[in-house]
Amino acid sequence: MIRNLVNGAVSGVLATAAMSAVMLAGDRAGLMGEHPPKRIVRAMLPGHKRRPKPAEGVLGTVAHFGFGAACGGLFAVVVDGREPRVPLGAVYGLAIWAVSYHGWVPALGILPPVHRDRPGRQAVMAVGHAVYGTALVLALNRLSRDDRALPLNRLRREDQVPARI
């Protein structure tokens, strides 16, 4: 279970990087406005939730990658070492988007619900989450395959016992 969790967290970080590339492309196309992770962090920091705060951009990035790692770890624990297919990953990514942007994000007053938000931002975010799920599955399957390729007896028993002082 720990191996699955770690592989999932690492895969989640890699998948978040892929998703972030989609978000940056959407930003350059003028579709995004402020990025949701930055808005979420702004709302969570002390003070008025709509007023800019120092370091919210950096904290938003850290929180985004942390959330991606946590979602990747959860996914890996649920699939329990099996190799999920890419469509399942895309659906998982879209489920994260739906629960977030139809659920807790508007419920906390951070962003409007999808139907009232900037259409471009939500299109980019939906595509970005599908990319996240796809990249998550590809990275997780690769890491899991690499784990299975390791010999089971790679560590000798004496390597596992701490040295006595």
Annotation keywords:
mainly alpha; 6 helices; 71% helix; globular
Topology:
Layout: H1 2-28, H2 36-44, H3 56-79, H4 86-107, H5 119-149, H6 157-160
Structural description of this entry:
With 165 residues, the chain is mostly helical. It has one domain (2-146). 71% of the residues lie in helices and 0% in strands. It contains 6 helices and no strands. It has helices at residues 2-28, 36-44, 56-79, 86-107, 119-149, 157-160. Helix 1 packs across helix 3 and helix 2 (36-44) crosses helix 3 (56-79). It starts with a helix and ends in a 5-residue tail after the last helix. Mean pLDDT is 88; it is low at 152-165.
- Total number of distinct structural domains: 1
Strand content: under 5%
Helix content estimate: over 70%
Shape: globular
How far apart lie the N and C ends?
32 Å
* Counted beta strands: 0
